[in-house]
Fold this sequence. Notes:
single chain, mainly alpha, three-stranded mixed β-sheet, two-stranded antiparallel sheet, 5 strands, elongated
Amino acid sequence: MNLARLWTIVTLELTQRVRSVAWYVLLGVFAAILLGVTALSFLAFSWMGGSGPGAGGAIYSVIVYVVLLLVVLVSPTVAGNAVNGDRDQATLAPVQVTLATTGEIVLGKLVAAWVSGLAFLAVAVPFLAVATIAGGLSPAALAVSLLVLVIEIGVFAAIGVGLSALLARPLFSIASTYLVVAAFVIGTLIVFGLGGAAVRTEVESHSRYITYEGSGTDYACSGWETYTYEVPRFDRVWWVLAANPFVIIADATPTAYDAYGNPTDLFGQIASGVRMAQVVPETETWSDGCADAQDYPSVREQTDGLLPSWFVGLGVQLVVAGLLLWGGWARTRTPARRLPPGTRVA
């Protein structure tokens, strides 16, 4: 791996993008959308009477999620034709006959696509900073959110570059990249819901309650009643939902809790819900209405000690991106043993 050759490839890729007027138009549209969402978020939560840290956290969560959504939508366009686009324009073969190795070519295009995606994040930083200051959030929340956004941009850039090297046609590779992104964003929700509902377990519930007699001053305890029902086993498929990029950024961002141990923002609520899905349901429950009232653990107490979802989800994403990059490297390697029909070489 030669850093000089790698940097040359990255520079060439970025120069081609910067020369395009459409690139700056796209950045301007990105900034306009963020400006509108930020203004609407402040107006919406101000109208609802929110002025505390909870409202600030909600505003911040909305803006971060919009940034992630826009980045997810833009990344396939930026990286989805990085390799086969050059092959289609007959500019890849001249590079392959130089001293640049296949790994340097693929990695250079990945870095260029990653940097291109980071340009959109740079546009979003002022809006995130305003939301952080106005919401009274800690700088750690902003730092973690930016770090996760940087990583997610790199992951989806790797997926796009890998598919562009694997597939011969730019249109198909861009469409396939969008399908993979949709699988992470929407498909994980579907698999989590259907998978958990398909795998159920039987629960035996025992309960009794207070019965009143006569004038209502005399009461006694009823006998124990037993009945069974089925509950979904989300604990077996929670890792699928953990691979959702919106879940990753919610779980990785530090959660703020109120005095009762409940999360105060959207990120905390999503992170707590996904982590609690890891808990194996009890097969036998007891509910005694005649006993004294019991204190139930708070959300914070229930999630303490559970495995961080962002760590598992990010691992799944990195495995998928790594396999696609490896497949793209194998397909781009020269001399090629076999090429798809109609592939342009030079």
